Amino acid sequence: MNRHNSRPIVMCLSGHDPIGGAGLQADIEAIAAQQCHAAPAITALTIQDTVNVSDFRVLDHDWIVAQARTILNDVPVAAIKLGMLGSSAMVRTACEVIHMTPDTPVVCDPVLRAEGGGSLGEDDVGYVLREELLPLAFVVTPNLPEARIMAELPEGTADECADVLLKHCRNLLITGGHGPENELHNRLYLADGSRHTIIQQRLPGKYHGSGCTLASALAGRLALGEELGSAVRSALDYTWRTLRDAETPGRGQYIPRRFPIR
Predict the structure, then answer these.
(1) In CATH, what class is 9-142+209-245?
(2) Which of 15, 24, 40, 152 lies 20 to 30 Å from 64, alpha-carbon distance?
(3) How would you label 217-241 residue by residue, b for 16+ Cβ within 10 Å and e otherwise?
(4) Does Heme appear among the keywords (predicted)?
């Protein structure tokens, strides 16, 4: 029997990862795990594995806009998740897409570097993200290295980066795990001026796709109507479990297991 699809829909603009640990596959799996439906539009193709990224190619503006317009003309989109954009031109394309549905909450994961260290964006992407896209986002979810790039503070602390970035965005989540601390200190900065630190147990190893998983889970929680502070905590808890249960299919980093082990 056919049944009406009542799951909230999250449109994703992200790159494709052929190993399946990050990018659109991570988006689709994490969103589905929140009982939402992902509608993906591919922004870039990459050559990468569980060790690192070696190359990428950003797709054509008209193709991205056509994909997004087709999605928006057909289904109700409850949230938008932005991942790898790769170039200043693609950042501006994403802004164009956001203006097509201005009341839809946008979760921006500013993907600038792979966990292995390889670049996933042109040199000026961080600046254009900060100046043009962040003001359109509901919440931005960089890790500390990405926050430093966008804030132009190579050695800045999370609070120092936040002081710069909050001049451009409403809500900001700077994730932990890229420093020497024994615990994960995830720092949430809200539009009302409040600041919250959400501490989690640090897991051993390095993970491929953890940022994509978190941002997509957060977009799913917002699509379900969850309030931002609660949605952040739900997404962080979910992401931590996917890392706890992660697998090692290749020669490099762990890949989050985004569906529960049965």
Answers:
(1) alpha beta
(2) 152
(3) bbbbbbbbebebeebbbbbbebbbb
(4) no
The one-letter amino acid code at 21 reads G
What is the arithmetic mean of pLDDT over 151-178?
95
Ordered by start, the domain boundaries in the chain are 9-142+209-245
pLDDT bin (cut points 50, 70, 90) of residue 82 is very high
Mean pLDDT, residues 218-244: 98
Give the pairing of strands 53-58 and 195-201.
Answer: unpaired
Q: How far apart are CA 176 and CA 198, in angstroms?
A: 9
Neighbours of 194 (CB within 10 A): 9
pLDDT of 93: 97
Reference 164, options 175, 149, 180; nearest CA is: 149
Strand partners, 44: 15, 58
Asked if 214 contacts 221 with a C-beta cutoff of 8 angstroms, the reply is no
Tokens of 248: 């090692």
If you search the block for the tokens 């439906």, which residue do you land on? 37
Contact criterion met (CB below 8 Å) for 169 and 98: no
